[in-house]
Amino acid sequence: MKVAYFDCFAGAAGDMIVAALLDAGLDLEALRAALATLDLGGYEVSAEPVRRGGLAATRFNVAVESGAQPHRHLADIQRIINAGDLPGRSAERALAVFARLASAEAKVHGVGVEEVHFHEVGAVDSIVDVVGAAIGLELLGVERVFCSPIPAGSGTVETAHGTLPVPAPATAALLVGAPVAEAPGGAAGELTTPTGAAVLTTLAAGDAGEVDAAVELSANLDDCTGEVLGAAIGKLLAGGALDAWAAPVVMKKSRPAWMLSALCEVADAARMEEVFFTETTTLGVRRRTVARRKLARRHETVETPYGAIRVKVAALAGRNLTASPEFAEAAAAAEAHGVAVKEVLAAAVEAHRRKGT
């Protein structure tokens, strides 16, 4: 098995990753030929030998023709990649990187993944960097990717959204759960870009899914009625909990009881604890931070005999694993057409399957 190890002692960016692959033996003409199958245009790629810190290295350049870059959505980039004639797993890997980027941007801006407007990372040079990295790994025969802890940097950076702290919010979101390092010699500035973070955290160590942190809250209750527990779960979910549930337990003195639990974002933990205290009889709430690995998710709309239904698609490394129709929409369509909900659900799943073939 051939592996690639990225030693990111000075950070990571998309062009740096492609340059490293060129330095490792990737043929520039083969890279150009594969990139040329994308419907992009208006750019030229080149590579040149340079010296950094007294060491010989390679610099990868993407020269883009002057003019405004469109603010692409994830669907736009997916269409560009899917329409290209890319070798092996190149498209799969590139799609996984952009799906992770979209998820991070959506979280930072508080919008749905399909609503994300890519700015810098949707420009031609960033698309070339991401797809070029995926092509390079494929042409070099790399099956697995590993990387060192990643230094993010410090200070501020100018972006399409104005002046932002380093690491930029999207970069910070992408690095959650990943090993990070101090900047070498206390170097300031943006050492790791969102593109670099997305490529490495998506593809390193076996194309892992998105990893982040959450807080799990719980309390044992032996003097709450089912109605009170149900109301508390409803309040937790309405207040933004990622999930809330109750499970039967046996407490001291063999008392039957319920354990009420909730999973929430780290920033919401104190507010969720308040729901425990105000809505139940508990005198204390346990709190622990947990790591989550999540599949990349997006919504697609499919046409069925019962109308348009949204389907939630979950993917790993660009490969779709599950497709779940939105139940509320399916139920409404079933009511309107006088059929069973399961018929609408099955029609939506089949429509999504046909759409993907």
Write a short abstract of this structure.
This protein has 357 residues and is an alpha+beta fold.
Helix and strand topology:
Elements lengths: L2 E4 L7 H10 L4 H8 L7 E10 L2 E10 L9 H10 L6 H20 L14 H16 L4 E4 L2 E2 L1 E2 L1 E4 L2 E4 L3 H7 L4 E2 L7 E2 L3 H14 L2 E12 L4 H13 L4 E8 L5 E9 L4 H11 L6 E9 L1 E9 L2 E10 L2 E7 L1 H11 L3 H16 L1
Parallel strand pairs: 1-4, 5-9
Antiparallel strand pairs: 2-3, 6-10, 7-8, 11-13, 11-14, 12-13, 15-16, 16-17
Helix pairs in contact: 1-5, 1-7, 2-5, 3-4, 4-5, 4-6, 4-7, 6-7, 8-9, 10-11
Q: How would you portray this structure in words?
A:
This protein is α+β, with helices and mostly antiparallel strands. The chain has three domains: about 5-210, no CATH class; about 210-295, Transcriptional regulatory protein pf0864 domain like (Alpha-Beta Plaits), CATH 3.30.70; about 295-355, no CATH class. Helices cover about 40% and strands about 30% of the residues. It has helices at about 15-25, 30-35, 75-85, 90-110, 125-140, 170-175, 195-205, 225-240, 270-280, 325-335, 340-355; strands at about 5, 45-50, 55-65, 145, 150, 155, 155-160, 160-165, 180, 190, 210-220, 245-250, 255-265, 285-295, 295-305, 305-315, 320-325. The strands form seven sheets. Strands 12-13-11-14 form a four-stranded antiparallel sheet, covered by helices on one side. It has a three-stranded antiparallel sheet with strand order 15-16-17. Strands 1-4 form a two-stranded parallel ribbon. Strand 12 and strand 13 form a beta hairpin. The radius of gyration is 24 Å and the shape is globular. The model has no long low-confidence stretch (mean pLDDT about 90).
